[in-house]
Amino acid sequence: MDVQLETAHPLVARLDRYVALTQAERLALRALTTDRVTIKSGRTLVVEARQSDSMFVLRTGWLHTSTVLKGGARQILRIHQPGDLVNTSCLAWSRVVATVTAVTAAEVWPVPRARLTGLFIRHQRLAALLYGLSIAENVAFCDRLKSLGRTDAEARLAALLLDLLFRQRITAPDKPDELELFLTQSDMADALGLTKVHVNRVLKKMTDEGLIERTGRHVRIPDVGKLIDLSGFVDRHTEVCTDWLP
Amino acid sequence: MDVQLETAHPLVARLDRYVALTQAERLALRALTTDRVTIKSGRTLVVEARQSDSMFVLRTGWLHTSTVLKGGARQILRIHQPGDLVNTSCLAWSRVVATVTAVTAAEVWPVPRARLTGLFIRHQRLAALLYGLSIAENVAFCDRLKSLGRTDAEARLAALLLDLLFRQRITAPDKPDELELFLTQSDMADALGLTKVHVNRVLKKMTDEGLIERTGRHVRIPDVGKLIDLSGFVDRHTEVCTDWLP
DNA sequence: CGTCCATTTGACCAAGCTCAACCGCCGTGG
DNA sequence: CCACGGCGGTTGAGCTTGGTCAAATGGACG
């Protein structure tokens, strides 16, 4: 089996960040996926309320998960970057809970939920690690909740940018202070509980104040510390505790 | 071993709702807990940023999980009812991520995280079930996010009441339209991203409109359907999909 | 070159916040 | 037994953040 191919597996790469995977574990993870799916920018991968029994590992590109309310308003729940597990709710319900849309062209590798059965039986350490990551994601949602519930528009925007930046740093440790922002201002608004008009105004204000520099979709953050201070951002996904794993 | 005692174990009771537990599984779950801790109303169980390596099963009473921001504002992240797992973040970090406070007098049973190791090794079905529940909780957070990000104060309040009501229904199927609301209006405000003054006003408005009836801390909801309609509430925890479990 | 979509900007509006006062209840201590 | 203090709830007046509506700009692409 080609070693090159193997380390390129997005799920292996992701979990290998937290523990040193054994060869058997790598093989088991690879066996979870067989297909590859590519999606064009703007297209949906799964649609709310439809049937689905697969989750997906994001290989390349950005996705987001969203719901729409009765009035037509949309809430973006999560923005996914390479290595993320998407549509995990298929493990708890057979109907899709939230729509997954491609922000950029993207490649995802489906993981039929039935394959997890064997993984949990034979690879308890991976099972425990997945559980730990799910809990970490829980905490990430708590941070979002705090942001939406108790901070103003500028702090929310800052927190969003920092979240994207810090997650990008994991796979691209060069460029520690700049990122390509593939979201539209309308997307940001829907992620932050604001309107696109207000997002635009606040971005302008932050640009004028020198907090961020924008050229097209490229964003540079001259003083990351200042933004962290302003937003109350906490980096979380960088490391998780693994001492209780089998 | 006393059967009475066994079925009274809050974790056994909780998981037994989703799958029919075997005797071995019940014993394994019981072995997770040895101690009992009682907390007085208003006291904290764990405090943000302190060290902790235990989660807790809530046996009786209500708790909530919260964080405070730099300015002193507080965000309540989750309100816990009997059967809930609390402080699960101890599986991902050794430092406590959010303060847990007793809303009423409460009894919790500690689960040291080291004990989960054996559970994941020997009881893969329970491991998978825990994973599924963690994912379900994730989706519950998504619902909260949608509520805070894209609905007005009345809808948020309605969603909060319905969430508490539906979770109470699981353990108390009598009383399908009334509940004892142990939260102060200040608590509700901090859970919903509002101020206590505004919560008071909206509660009054809802009372005047006949949407809810209040006598002290007792709340009755004459027309649950109307509230559901108004809030976009979705019942989630009632059932989860278990067909992929080992 | 026209169309579509994202961004930008302005004028006005309102949901919810702030500040402040007051009430009612309950537990405590004189 | 009553006075007091504290906490939670209630209500009013005025203000601010962010929303609404609308129109103009500008880039990308067929």
Describe the structure.
The structure is a homodimer of 246-residue chains. Chain A is of the alpha+beta class and 246 residues long. Chain A starts with a helix and ends in a 15-residue tail after the last helix. In chain A, the strands form three sheets. Chain A has a four-stranded antiparallel beta sheet. In chain A, strands 2-7-4-5 form a four-stranded antiparallel beta sheet. A three-stranded antiparallel beta sheet of chain A has the order 9-11-10. Chain A is built from nine helices and eleven strands. In chain A, helix 6 packs across helix 9 (224-231) and helix 7 (185-192) crosses helix 8. The interface between A and B is large, with 55 and 55 residues. Chain A binds a DNA duplex (30 and 30 nucleotides) through residues 152-153, 184-186, 194-198, 200-202, 204.
SSE map:
The structure is a homodimer of 246-residue chains.
Chain A: H1 3-7, H2 10-16, H3 23-32, E1 37-39, E2 44-46, E3 54-60, E4 63-68, E5 74-80, E6 85-86, E7 99-102, E8 106-112, H4 114-122, H5 124-150, H6 153-171, E9 178-180, H7 185-192, H8 196-208, E10 213-215, E11 218-220, H9 224-231
Antiparallel strand pairs in A: 1-8, 2-7, 3-6, 3-8, 4-5, 4-7, 9-11, 10-11
Helix pairs in contact in A: 6-9, 7-8
The structure holds a DNA duplex (30 and 30 nucleotides).
